Amino acid sequence: MQFDSLTAFAKSDEAVPKKGPVAIVLVEDDVEVATTLRHHQQAGFRHLIAFMPPEFELPRDLTDTVTRIDYDATVEGALESAVNGVIAVVPAGTWMFYCYNAEYLFHPFCETRTVGEMLAFHTEERRDAMLTYVIDLYADDLWECPDAVSLDRAHLDRSGYYALARPDAHGHPKERQLDFFGGLRWRYEEHVPTARRKIDRIALFKTKPGLKLRPDHTFDDEEYNTFACEWHHNITAAICSFRTAKALKLNPGSTFDIETFKWHNSAPFEWHSRQLLDLGLMEPGQWF
Question: What's the CA gap between 7 and 137, in Å, rounded?
């Protein structure tokens, strides 16, 4: 189904999902749109909603299975408006996920377990949200891949990730909340605005009345922003993303300063959860 606006979608009783998990994909350009949507279909999301420009085309199999909403994902606040708009119309308690095109969710054991199975376990642990880390991917050869995107030649950083205490309004550390950094946003921080350097994102969450996503990828309910519950560690997931590499290479202010993203800590991305677990870029918590 296709709608010319979020308002038109919200008014359609047939289109609004009645049960999750629901994935929202914000399409900023025409890079790897189909692979992003298919990846999340295969991950086990029951519904996919693509916010994308009307001039972009989708393959027929995705046209038949993805709800499409005409949308300009490049304007200020586009992400929060889209996500909060869907939160407002789906039933309370619906698990949702959001990402951009050329971003791919990986969770522990995703090769044999669906995202629904993971969220069922997470719910049993009385958790309403899950921390995800945005792990930068980049092509190894920018001459052959000038937009830094290549599924076959994708690389990631094996190290260089760290966390800092997240202060509250009075400068005191928030309980069970940290700001995470690393990847290309850390290595090329001079080209990245301070507010956009974090790599943590509360991308998996359960809806409830009045819940709002904020511009920094956190929610107005502080418990949603915690990385674990009070009694033990919880599952975390990773969003493997070409978005930062693409922006750094296509931005006139940074492209000429970057001949390659590879460095001594680069490694080929294996497109497998085991690599991300071994590198400590996500963890299974108590889910074995």
Answer: 34
